[in-house]
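Action item from last week, closing it out:
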Amino acid sequence: MAKGMSMADFDETFDWVVVGSGAGSMSSALVMRKAGKSVVILEKTGFIGGTTAKSGGVMWIPNNRFIRAEEPDETPEKAMAYLDAVTDDGSDSPGTSREKRMAYVTESPRMLDFIIAQGLEMERASDFWPDYYDDLPGGCKTTRCVTAKFFNTNELGEWRSKLRPGFAPFPAKLDHGMKFTNYMHKSWGYKWLFAKVAMRVVAAKITGKHFTTAGAALQGRMLKASLAAGVELRTETPVSQMIVEDGKVVGVIAEVNGQKKRIGARLGVLVNAGGFAQNQAMRDKYMPGTKAAWSNTPEGDTGEMHVELERLGGVLAQMDQMVGYQTTYAPGFDKDYVKPGGQGMAAKPGAILVDQTGVRYLNEGGSYELFCQRMLERNREVGAIPSWVIFDQTYAENYKLCNKWVGKAEKPKEFIESGWLKVADTIEELAGKIGADPATLRATVDRWNAMVDKGVDEDFGRGGREYDKWLGDPFHGTNPA
């Protein structure tokens, strides 16, 4: 912005301008509207919701109202002990500090209370969704997680078509969907749970309701509250530049119907525009060896705001980090809105993960972020992308792969013909089919089986955490993992 210009020189002006439409964007908009300020949210794509809408929408909020009601021993001090235990204050984590962690522990429960007060219906995600590293000091072995209740998108009226779709369009809690998908054949309780959800689905069809859960439910509720509060939301309005005067950002340049418009911000601009997962050039620069095609983030996740903020003097850090989630190129994956997940696939009893040489190299349970980090690290040493999930017939008869049973005589034709699923009668034969050394794969399997007999994973500690057990099978013996 040139010297001598004023707010009158903008095409339009708001108190608060937000770039991107994720959950953080709308929560900030609700705060500003509560304070009586004008707000506009500018979204580059045709849908409101960002990556949040495509995600599980699970929020880790320590000391929240739901856990406190059931577990009085939950305290801010316990949460801080946990964050201190999992966080390195060294130069490799410049995005955090103990003060920032304390701010999160203090303010996140207040944030939850605030959005509930704005009409969002929230609930405890589950009674068992442990912290990723629950064995560390302060770790929670039940759950600190919170989710939105499933949501009827008809409540959005004409905005319904603008909400980014999620991966779970059904009227059930996210963890309930996970349970009856995996274990309905093992439990009458889960059969009954599925029946209740099925009845809701039928009732919804009769009454014309359209339900969604997980991240899309959170964003649907956020969008409804934002509209009710008077937030202005605009889709297909990409921001290309910050407008700066005397070292202060006072507005943005956005594209509206092919024309550039200058939008002023009296109080400030919040940039909440996601990452660069869909920008292959930026991946090659910051995360070599990774591919945009792997990502489940929306198409607009292309990193322009990183480039723009760096141009203004912003310092980028930890650009080689990501919230990685295991996915698999199952046949037909390219037709899926969300690529098939692989988090629980290798963590169930009867399965292990090996690299392309046939060596097991990580704990198949635990944090999906750590899993992906270890896979990338391993791939720099030997081929590990893709890795192979090795499992036996008992596994195949108990658990689905990409929502299909493979333990039957007639296995899914597309799985076999594509080479995604390899079937063999011996470990050595299987090794030949996946290109691994037979002796190496045999040694890997024999070592794993011996550790299973002992009940202890001496190599990577699988099953030592409650989170590992959560990913396992609750109906399997003394250790679900």
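Closing note: The chain has a mean pLDDT of 93.
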